[in-house]
Amino acid sequence: MPSVQIRSSPPPVATVTDLKQRVIACLNRLSDRDTLALAAAELDSIALNLSPETFPLFINCLQSTDSSAKSPVRKHCVSLLSVLSRSHGDSLAPHLSKMVSTVLRRLRDPDTSVRAACAAASVDMTTSITGTPFSILLGPMIETLIHDCDPNAQIGAAVCVAAAIDAADELDVEQLQKALPKIGKLLKSEGFKAKPELLGAIGSVIGAVDGRNSEKAVLDWLLPNVSEFLSSSDWRARKAAAEAMGRIAMAEEELAPLYKKACVGILESRRFDKVKLVRETMNHTLRLWKQLEGDSTGVSESSSSSKSASYGMSATSGKRSNGLKGKDRNSNTLLSSKLNGVEPLDRSNTPKDVEQNAVESKDKRNHSTLGAKRNLFPAKVSKVNENGLNKSQVVQSSDEESPKTDSGSSSSSSQAMNNAEELSLIRNQITQIEKQQSSLLDLFQKFMESSQNGMQSLERRVRGLETSFSVISTDLLVSRTITRNGNHKRNACLQN
């Protein structure tokens, strides 16, 4: 006997047409504020109870929604993709590309809530539909991010890429490594407007790669481009750049210490941001870079100069970073010993040499203090010269014995002390300014809240006055009509 193949029977035509009409009717009812909640609940129940044969019909209905529809309709059409992904999972794998194209059509939407729904749908599709390669979802979004010139589409694509990468469990590292240079070039493009969202996507890509097969050449051009946005006029770009640099510090454990000196210097100069949220992000990123293994002060001058040239740093920022990093105890001891004219002790010296160096340093300090006292109290020295020749000769001989280098060392030490005092004063002033700015922001927020409350109370009073005025006007109209009717009746009676 011939084998009989049993095929799954397609759904009846009447059922398909009824389902289509029902979905379209619910989508139309989303436009009305009174029927919005009921229509949304009915669409969610339809999406939960769909069979695999009706998936294409339902997705086509969602995709055919015009952009001229109202915002609740556009938003809920994207939210239904999240409901489908969470409820049906891998059974939607054959239809994933169509669902992604539905999301991509909504990225140009001017409403931010619709673009947020697109990002949520991307996360749900990534976490629920795992039977297909991640490139089916991520590839079209990256292409849209690179090639689309619409600002809203750029924002939506960058947010969706970052959300999908952060939510994915298994990623294609090679795909992300190939896409990173293309995405990074958009930082220099004047046609790309969504720079804060792009920096967030770059940070997500770096965190996903996690230092696997990383190349130094990538960080050589990526870090300077990202660090430029630390001084951007847009506070969102500054915050996103700081977060991206924090991702680099956590992910690139092998290569990041090579850039520690330059990055710490840049972050030190930008950690007193006027926006509190940005300031906290800067300080957190600075702590991450300082915790990296490897001493940034031990880098040779040639390597530091090449890094500063590659980063495009100015000489002033380099001096500032060197001054800030000179707070270490070892550098302080070396600096103080050089300023006092004492050479640093070598461990290979014998105890006798150590004692001899200590005695010589003590003599030099005594001579320098004598010279300083003579400069500070010239009147006493003149009295000594007047009273006796012996004392003046002693003073002159002691002055002649003190070398010229002692005066230079004392002046340099005093200059160093003055510089340290000035730095401490500047830091105190900066902290005071920061506290004043935070207090001013708090006062401004309180003022805005009080003004909003005042405006609301004023609106309520105006509405009350309007209602009372309308009541009074209606009462006046009624009284006028009553008086007119009474006068007409009286005139008629008098005529009769």
Automatic annotation (TrEMBL):
Q: Which InterPro entries does the UniProt record give?
A: ARM-like (IPR011989), ARM-type_fold (IPR016024), TORTIFOLIA1/SINE1-2 (IPR033337), TORTIFOLIA1/SINE1-2_N (IPR057600)
Q: Where is the composition biased (Low complexity)?
A: 296-317
Q: What stretch or stretches form a coiled coil here? A: none
Q: Where is the TORTIFOLIA1/SINE1-2 N-terminal domain?
A: 18-291
Organism of derivation: Capsella rubella
Q: Which PANTHER family match?
A: MICROTUBULE-ASSOCIATED PROTEIN TORTIFOLIA1, TORTIFOLIA1-LIKE PROTEIN 5
Name of this chain's protein: TORTIFOLIA1/SINE1-2 N-terminal domain-containing protein
Domain of life of the native organism: Eukaryota
The UniProt regions of compositional bias labelled Basic and acidic residues, in chain numbering, are 344-363
Quote the biased-composition stretches of kind Polar residues, using this chain's numbering.
Answer: 384-397
GO cellular component annotations of the record: microtubule
Molecular-function GO terms, alphabetical: microtubule binding
Region described as Disordered: spans on this chain: 294-418
